[in-house]
Each structure stands twice: as structure tokens, then as C-alpha cells.
Amino acid sequence: MPQKILLALSTFPDAEIARRISHDLVSQRFAACANILPAVESIYRWKEKIESGNETLVFFKVGEDRQSAFQDKLRSLHPYDVPEIIFLAVGSGLPEYLRWVSENCRQVP
Q: Which domains are delineated in the chain?
């Protein structure tokens, strides 16, 4: 049975940081792909204050067996004290695409 695929979401302070970290994660096979959405407005509570700001959102495609390693690596690279790292299970999709994701985030011996 093929492994489950996850969609991981994370926000970054700007597109340059998002690109650099995304490139690192894909080149090191923690994720198969990263889609960068350069303009999102975030409103959130931080240290008991309502904050807002522009951020860059990235969707990563990750194999379930790489979830923990991906999270640890992203956290080590991320500039935020508490980065947004959310995983959503992909229920279905084009089988060839899901296989491609799985193959491209495998650890290379």
C-alpha cells in the first residue's frame, strides 16, 4: 500500500525567506514540492495583543513517513519563535501525482 501524503502549511515573514527554506526542504528531500503564495494577510493574537501583518504562505507536499523529520527541519530553519506548521491528510488525488510525491521525499541511502 502506498504511503499517505500530507499537505503541510507554514507562513513566513517574506517571500525570500520562504523561497530559501522551501528550496532547502525540497533539495534535501524533506518535501517533494513547495507552492509559495507570496501575499497573505494574517491577523492573530500574540502575547495578549492582536497583531496583523503580511506573510508568505507555503504549501508543502510531504510523505507521512517524513512528517516528523520535515517538522524538525522546518522548525530549525524557521525564523519565528513558534512557527505555523500544520499537516492535513490528503484523502485522494491523482495516483501518479501522489506516487511522485512519495518518491520525491524519500530518504536517499
A: 5-103 (3.30.70.120)
